[in-house]
């Protein structure tokens, strides 16, 4: 990994009583160390990548505490890692992005939750839901319900988050059940402070090893033990958890003077709800609120007595629960019905079933509910102000109009994956349209303009598997796109071995950029480097494919457009049956630029010669048809006014962001476009030969000009 987390690592060293200041996700990392974990692991993904990234660089802290760190190849292996807590009194934590990661991990999670744990087991899930999310919109809550795992959803405030981590391990041990700690995007990035505690070494760890646990059939997720475990979940573990939640005050009751009404809210939504109530004049900036609230820092299980106590004396209660279906509202309704409580319960009838509960959405919901719950409240002024703000926004949107061009997200400047999609577009000019099975990763950006390539995305590393049903039905072989991250995460087994097993005849393009780039540039099994002291990585994709029995494998430079188009054409048309794999090799440009920046700065400081390459477009030659932009998509390729007063079309222009990858030049050549592209070499600290060469060139150009004149 090229990014340094030295500042964050300092925060992990803080001792008893020292003030921690920083982001929510880093507070969780510190809380894990304070909780005496014996092992940690996970698979990176927004919004929780930071947790593992920081720990990877904090190896000396982990060594001192005897903590084992596993950078897992997918979420299933991370979930299985928690199996250590089934037989050993060792606390463990893993992390991943949800919902997608939880889907991948779900088999292992079921097999973990059934026997239960004796050491605290925690899954820190980045709930990637709502505005800014990058995955399908589903809730992790369903997994907690179906597998009987407990779900913590802490109020986004650092002391509360840290307490939930620490108490979460205790809850897990008190009820022999794994717990999930759900952190929404905003909770991960909320900033604040808390009084730190000393980091704790575990009693069982890499520094305090134990012998194998005694054989215990009841610790296996296997019948007949599973029948007993299913009963234990509900007859012992659930009541134990509910007792613990009440005894340790994990949920919070916020008082208010309007005590005949109340709101029950997920902890993670509390901040937004407070702000909405403030908008309506019912709360202050510090969270003092007139409407009493029950803040559920644990959303599963609910403690029925706590719900009944909170609802006592209330005529109207609103459940604020983000996303559908309304699990909490239904559960609370059942608790109230069974106790024969007669109050008006509201929830999804006032608030939308789906989508993020932003302040605006919540305010609208409160304005629908409050007049029914407390008709005596005068909300006319805030309601008018809210409506005016909404009208203003609609007016602004109207003024912008539908004509504002969209700016879809795109690959980084100089990305090695871009040329592969240019090659596909060029090949399709000859072959006709091809079915392209897309995948998760940076390459999914090719689904946006100007490429608009990709028919389906079925999950991380699933492209080849998703093309398996398309191939036999299609006139042309489908192309599956997969990153090297996806290949190791799932694609090797789900796609490649299945294609070999079933004699699939498709084409797989593996984009080998050397990292899991989309999640923050982490190492993977085939990276040139690793996090280990010797810096060596272990695996090679080409060797692995050949060892499995793939016979048609070509490894090509991804920027070589001519070679890539030829290889694609051959793969699509060859009479040879079987899986055909093209490995498009090119280091992630983001990682490369980070690396080069440091190396070049050192070389410049030492007075060494440094060469930088840039591309440019000759204004006089550019015809202004911009097909280079449409085929390349590089953000450095833009347009500028035509300097020729006799021509009105803007000309193409390469801006200062160009990293000199050469792709645009290759496009111009491979697509037989205009010859307006040129390459410039910028030499810092030039040598004597560079200076002589420059003078020679200047003299030659001067002579040619004089001849021409
Ligand atoms: S992070 Fe790397 S692989 Fe991803 S778009 Fe940027 S350059 Fe390409
Ligand atoms: S060489 Fe061309 S494609 Fe590459 S970064 Fe520069 S402008 Fe973009």
Describe what this molecule looks like in 3D:
The protein is an alpha/beta fold and 709 residues long. The chain contains 25 helices and 24 strands. The strands form six sheets. The chain has a seven-stranded mixed sheet, with helices on both faces. Strands 16-15-17-18-20-19 form a six-stranded parallel sheet, with helices on both faces. Helix 7 (100-113) links the parallel strand 4 (92-98) and strand 5 (121-127). The radius of gyration is 30 Å and the shape is globular. The model has no long low-confidence stretch (mean pLDDT 94). It binds iron/sulfur cluster (2 copies). One iron/sulfur cluster binds at residues 411-412, 415, 417, 442, 513, 517-518, 588-590.
Defining key terms:
709 residues; seven-stranded mixed sheet; 25 helices; six-stranded parallel sheet; alpha/beta; 17% strand; binds iron/sulfur cluster
List the helices and strands and how they pair.
Layout: H1 6-12, E1 19-23, H2 24-34, E2 39-42, H3 49-57, H4 59-65, E3 68-71, H5 75-81, H6 84-87, E4 92-98, H7 100-113, E5 121-127, H8 141-147, E6 150-152, H9 158-175, E7 179-184, H10 185-189, E8 191-195, H11 225-247, E9 252-254, E10 261-266, H12 270-279, E11 293-296, E12 298-300, H13 304-311, E13 316-320, H14 327-338, E14 344-346, H15 359-373, H16 380-400, H17 418-431, E15 436-438, E16 456-457, H18 463-467, E17 479-483, H19 484-501, E18 507-512, H20 541-548, E19 552-557, H21 561-573, E20 580-585, H22 589-605, E21 610-617, H23 627-632, E22 637-640, E23 651-654, H24 663-670, E24 677-684, H25 688-708
Parallel strand pairs: 2-3, 2-4, 4-5, 5-7, 6-7, 10-11, 10-13, 13-14, 15-16, 15-17, 17-18, 18-20, 19-20
Antiparallel strand pairs: 1-8, 6-12, 9-11, 21-24, 22-23
Bound molecules: iron/sulfur cluster (2 copies).
Residues 413-414, 615, 632, 634, 636-637, 654, 658-664 line the site of one iron/sulfur cluster.
């Amino acid at each position: 990994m090229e990014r340094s987390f030295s500042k964050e690592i300092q925060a992990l060293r803080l001792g008893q009583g020292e003030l921690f200041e920083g982001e929510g996700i880093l507070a969780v990392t510190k809380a894990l160390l304070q909780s005496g974990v014996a092992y940690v692991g996970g698979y990176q993904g927004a919004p929780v990548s930071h947790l593992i990234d920081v720990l990877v660089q904090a190896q000396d802290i982990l060594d001192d505490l005897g903590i084992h760190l596993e950078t897992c190849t997918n979420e299933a292996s991370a979930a299985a890692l928690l199996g250590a807590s089934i037989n050993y009194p060792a606390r463990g934590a893993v992390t991943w992005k949800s919902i997608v990661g939880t889907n991948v991990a779900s088999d292992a999670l079921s097999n973990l939750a059934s026997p239960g744990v004796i050491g605290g087991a925690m899954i820190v899930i980045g709930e990637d839901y709502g505005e800014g999310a990058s995955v399908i919109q589903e809730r992790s809550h369903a997994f907690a319900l179906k597998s009987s795992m407990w779900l913590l959803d802490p109020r986004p405030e650092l002391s509360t988050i840290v307490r939930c981590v620490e108490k979460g391990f205790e809850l897990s041990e008190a009820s022999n059940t794994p717990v999930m700690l759900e952190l929404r995007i905003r909770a991960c990035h909320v900033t604040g402070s808390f009084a730190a505690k000393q980091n704790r070494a575990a009693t069982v760890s890499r520094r305090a090893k134990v012998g194998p646990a005694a054989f215990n059939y009841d610790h296996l997720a296997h019948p007949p033990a599973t029948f007993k475990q299913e009963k234990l979940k509900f007859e012992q573990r659930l009541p134990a958890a509910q007792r613990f939640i009440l005894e340790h005050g994990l949920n919070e009751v916020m008082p208010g003077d309007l005590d005949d009404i109340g709101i029950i809210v997920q902890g993670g939504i509390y901040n937004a709800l407070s702000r909405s109530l403030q908008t309506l004049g019912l709360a202050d900036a510090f969270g003092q609120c007139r409407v009493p609230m029950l803040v559920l820092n644990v959303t599963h299980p609910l403690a029925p007595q706590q719900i009944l106590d909170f609802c006592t004396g209330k005529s109207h209660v609103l459940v604020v629960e983000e996303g559908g279906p309304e699990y909490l509202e239904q559960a609370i309704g059942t608790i109230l019905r069974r106790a024969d409580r007669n109050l008006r319960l509201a929830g999804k009838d006032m608030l939308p079933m789906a989508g993020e509960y932003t302040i605006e959405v919540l305010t609208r919901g409160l304005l629908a509910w409050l007049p029914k719950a407390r008709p005596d409240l005068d909300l006319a002024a805030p309601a008018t102000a809210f409506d005016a703000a909404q009208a203003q926004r609609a007016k602004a949107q109207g003024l912008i109009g539908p004509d504002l061009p969209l700016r879809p997200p795109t690959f980084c400047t100089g990305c090695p994956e871009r040329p592969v999609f240019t090659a596909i577009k060029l090949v399709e000019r000859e072959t006709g349209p091809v079915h392209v099975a897309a995948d998760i990763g940076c390459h999914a950006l090719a689904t946006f303009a100007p490429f608009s390539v990709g028919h389906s995305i079925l999950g991380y590393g699933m492209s080849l598997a998703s093309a398996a049903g398309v191939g036999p039905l299609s006139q042309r072989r489908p192309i599956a796109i997969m990153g090297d991250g996806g290949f190791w995460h799932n694609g090797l087994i789900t796609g490649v071995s299945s294609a070999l097993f079933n004699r699939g005849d498709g084409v797989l393009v593996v984009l080998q950029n050397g990292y899991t780039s989309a999640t923050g540039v982490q190492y993977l099994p085939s990276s040139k480097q690793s996090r280990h002291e010797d810096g060596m990585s272990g695996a090679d994709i080409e060797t692995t494919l050949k060892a499995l029995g793939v016979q048609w494998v070509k490894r090509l430079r991804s920027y070589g457009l001519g070679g890539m188009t030829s290889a694609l054409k051959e793969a699509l048309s060859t009479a040879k049956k079987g899986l055909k794999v093209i490995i498009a090799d090119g280091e992630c440009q983001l990682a490369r630029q980070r690396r080069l920046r440091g190396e070049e700065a050192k070389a410049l400081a030492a007075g060494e010669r440094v060469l930088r390459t840039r591309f440019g477009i000759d204004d006089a030659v550019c015809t202004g048809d911009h097909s280079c932009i449409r085929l390349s998509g590089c953000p450095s390729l833009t347009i500028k006014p035509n300097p020729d007063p006799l021509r009105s079309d803007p000309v193409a222009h390469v801006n200062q962001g160009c990293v000199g990858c050469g792709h645009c030049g290759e496009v111009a050549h491979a697509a037989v476009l205009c010859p307006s592209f040129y390459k410039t070499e910028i030499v810092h600290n030039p040598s004597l030969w560079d200076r002589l060469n420059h003078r020679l060139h200047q003299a030659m150009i001067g002579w040619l000009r004089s001849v021409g004149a």
